[in-house]
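REQUEST FORM: STRUCTURE PREDICTION
Request ID: SP-0412
Submitted by: Lab K.M.
Chain count: 1
Length (residues): 470
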Amino acid sequence: MNNDDLCFTSATELAALIRDKEISPVEVADAAIDRVERLNPVINAFCHMDFERTRQTAKDAEAAVASGDELGPLHGVPFSIKDMVAIKGMKMCSGSNIFADRVMDFDAPLVARLKQAGGVLLGKTTTPEFGWRATGDSPLTGTTRNPWNTEMTSGGSSAGAAASAAAGMASLNQGADGAGSVRIPAGFCGIFGIKPTFGRVPNVPQSNNDNTSHPGPMTRTVADSALMLSIMAGPDPLDNTSLESQPADYPGQLNAGIAGLKVAFSPDLGGNRVDPEVAAAVAKAAARFTELGAHVEAVAIDWPDTADLIHFMWSAHEVGNYAPYLAEWRDQMDPGLVACIEDAQRHSAADYVQRRAEKQAFNRRVADFFVEYDLLLTPTTSVTALPVGRLNPPDWPQHDWNWLAWASFTYPFNFSGNPAASVPIGFDKTGLPIGLQVVGKRFADLTVLQAAAAYEAAHPWADTRPPEIT
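STATUS: Completed
RESULT:
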């Protein structure tokens, strides 16, 4: 197996090969490091790396295999962490010049769990400043590009995580999703990504955005995400929003199928604009769920329009969290983020409380819907990947900061906390990936994974690689 083939081997297969002593953790790490060093100057998926540490961890993992030690489920498998999560002894800049020199003195729980499972840290992946936008541009770390076409964005805010997975850099990549930041780049880059039920994966320190941020896995296969999520998930006393229950056996129950499930399909989620190529591909994919044994029903969604609500809530959280930095750092911040903060300064605390009540009422409507249905299928995004440097598609209304219109399928389920995934379903005529969003009942992360796995088994995508990147 050559280095490129090794880099595109799934994490579940890599772990098995390492346990069987057919390949070594050092071989795997060296192949991943070589690929990052070769491709990162173009793709810009990684922003912080310590390959000396990576190689030493791989050597320790190899020694454990040779000694017959008990091995964790990720033993010797490379993983990446988004640069908004703490790793002891490594920078956490959050894509911002404000924190360009911040080094953390602890591991976030999800990082500690991945390490304890035997994973080998490859590095930290890029994000736009504080994860505020759904494209891969940061004033500190620059532009992250889409491996399928480097003139296009990878999406965001888990920009580097998606690019890493698609380009075969790391098998396992952690993202975080506050309005679509796992699903949008997963859809743009043709990989699988899941935003689990809110609280399923502990988030330390907690994000101050009204319980909308969901850490989750981003991988080339559903099985790899199931494995990664099973390790990251579970309660933690440092996060008082984390769910008390332990996760289900996602890898062990992944292939149970979806026969008999009641599945709703909404092509527009109540009137959202959708590119015709995306709409056609999503409708075709939704029809496949009938072939997989589910009962699929086209539905008309009549939930309240949330466009103005997300516009308000998004800017309110940005102003509350980052306005104190404007006086000193304005000229070194993303101009769109600055505009977003300034737009929200006209709102009052009373406005926020009243709009939060609207959000809670909306969440009740979503919960009522999922009393009747097991799953909801929609497009992941209205469009395929945008050209780099743009905030909105060229033929859509432009705005100095609001990018949420073309991402209006994802953020409602950050409000409601439901598990939701993006599944690759093909490509547009230019060769850019298209994603199908699969949404489940709250706490039914396993059902979402099983549905994605059933579709993947019928229509596999992981062996399709982006064009050679130069």
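NOTES: The chain has a mean pLDDT of 97.
Reviewed by: T.R.
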